[in-house]
């Protein structure tokens, strides 16, 4: 797809109302749209059975706790009695009790006991469906019944004898900038080409790619073609997941599937959740896991000053370096980018495609029409081949 100058100006003009895309609280247009989907909210390993933690997702403070049976539950942040934070209480079976006066809530957020009262009453703090998958806790925040839980390339992740690892990064910028970065294939040639080591480095050059974006039943297929045998393909799934494939960490390793979600915390903060997966077993799988246990906890925001003020980047480790490069480029636009004064061009075809897609869905939602019924890909994009070694 090609874009004229008028196309780019039109998209920029209608996109100047950035508020519509970054405001995600309940009741806002984007907040309503995003609440139609499952979202990762935490690392599964971050909350043990019988424990509770506070989380903030979609501009809403919440409590995530894991019942004594091991199931995750998401309920409101504060007790309905006098507003005490629920994560400071304790878990009893699959329920959670407030530390202040002992009000007890079930996994749906309904109060089932008030020790100082004769009945439980009708109070509640709200609750949302939650589940574990691939090392992440997912939750559904919509008012309609939860749709069937699904993931892009779910069958691949569930293939036997695969090594997997989940991680997250929390960034001080709005979620839509993260999304736009995932749809910007040209930046890979520049932001990620310097300092990349190992097999991945051979897949990246400063050659500006030919771009192709195709809407699918699940989202967008993105192709960046730099040479006949150097094609970067990703399946972007609406509203906030990108699936890419990268070469292994050594020449002998299989290629790695990466599913990354970009989830709003609020209008100025977001989290990137990842599931890395590769067809490995035995000693290779152990090495894969050890690699991520050593380097996968890296969060660029913890090194904000070093990155922006001193230009100190992680070295040699792919997982850390690419994250830092994306962080500097994306967070460097500001918490909410100034789109009014941007100058879009041919390299921004993916960004334009994405903005049009969201504006179409938001317009349908606000007019009372039907948004697209997004479905799991029936035929995922063909995996790219490794670039020819040089």
Automatic annotation (TrEMBL):
Per UniProt, which keywords does this protein have?
2Fe-2S, Dioxygenase, Iron, Iron-sulfur, Metal-binding, Oxidoreductase
Q: Which InterPro entries match?
A: ARHD_Rieske_2Fe_2S, Cholesterol_7-desaturase, LigXa_C, Rieske_2Fe-2S, Rieske_2Fe-2S_sf
| Domain Rieske: start-end pairs | 38-139
Give the region (Disordered) as residue ranges.
370-390
Question: Under the GO molecular function aspect, what terms does this record hold?
Answer: 2 iron, 2 sulfur cluster binding; dioxygenase activity; iron ion binding
Reported EC number(s) for this entry are 1.14.12.-
Any Pfam family the entry gives: Rieske
Which PROSITE patterns is this protein grouped with? RIESKE (PS51296), RING_HYDROXYL_ALPHA (PS00570)
Judged by the first EC level, this protein's enzyme class is: oxidoreductase
Gene3D superfamilies according to UniProt: Naphthalene 1,2-dioxygenase Alpha Subunit, Chain A, domain 1, Rieske [2Fe-2S] iron-sulphur domain
Q: Which domain of life is it from?
A: Bacteria
Which named protein is this?
A: Phenoxybenzoate dioxygenase subunit alpha
């Amino acid at each position: 797809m090609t874009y004229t100058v008028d196309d780019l100006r039109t998209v920029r003009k209608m996109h100047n109302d950035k508020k519509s895309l970054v405001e995600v609280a309940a009741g806002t247009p984007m907040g309503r749209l995003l609440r139609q989907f499952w979202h990762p909210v935490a690392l599964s390993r971050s909350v043990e059975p019988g424990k509770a933690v506070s989380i903030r997702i979609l501009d809403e403070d919440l409590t995530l706790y894991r019942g004594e049976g091991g199931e995750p539950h998401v309920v409101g942040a504060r007790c309905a009695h006098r507003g005490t934070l629920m994560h400071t209480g304790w878990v009893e079976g699959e329920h959670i009790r407030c530390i202040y006066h002992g009000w007890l809530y079930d996994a749906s957020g309904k109060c089932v006991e008030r020790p100082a009262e004769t009945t439980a009453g009708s109070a509640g703090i709200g609750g949302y469906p939650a589940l574990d998958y691939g090392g992440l806790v997912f939750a559904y925040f919509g008012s309609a019944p939860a749709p069937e839980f699904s993931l892009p390339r779910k069958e691949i992740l569930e293939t036997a004898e695969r090594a997997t690892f989940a991680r997250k990064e929390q960034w001080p910028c709005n979620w839509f900038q993260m999304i736009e970065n995932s749809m910007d294939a040209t930046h890979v040639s520049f932001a990620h080409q310097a300092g990349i080591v190992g097999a991945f480095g051979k897949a990246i050059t400063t050659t500006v790619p030919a771009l192709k974006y195709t809407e699918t039943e699940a989202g967008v297929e993105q192709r960046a073609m730099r040479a006949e045998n150097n094609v970067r393909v990703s399946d972007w799934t609406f509203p906030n997941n990108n699936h890419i494939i990268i070469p292994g960490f050594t020449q002998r390793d299989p290629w790695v599937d990466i599913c990354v979600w970009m989830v709003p915390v609020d209008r100025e903060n977001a989290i990137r959740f990842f599931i890395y997966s590769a067809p490995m077993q035995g000693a290779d799988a152990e090495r894969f896991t050890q690699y991520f246990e050593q380097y996968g906890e890296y969060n660029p925001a913890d090194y904000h000053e070093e990155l922006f003020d001193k230009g100190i980047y992680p070295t040699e480790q792919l997982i850390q370096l690419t994250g830092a490069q994306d962080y500097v480029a994306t967070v460097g636009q500001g918490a909410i980018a100034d789109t009014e004064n941007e100058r879009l061009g041919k390299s921004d075809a993916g960004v334009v495609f994405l903005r049009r897609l969201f504006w179409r869905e938001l317009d349908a939602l606000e007019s009372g029409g039907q948004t697209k019924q997004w479905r799991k890909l029936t035929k995922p994009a063909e995996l790219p081949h490794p670039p020819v070694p040089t």
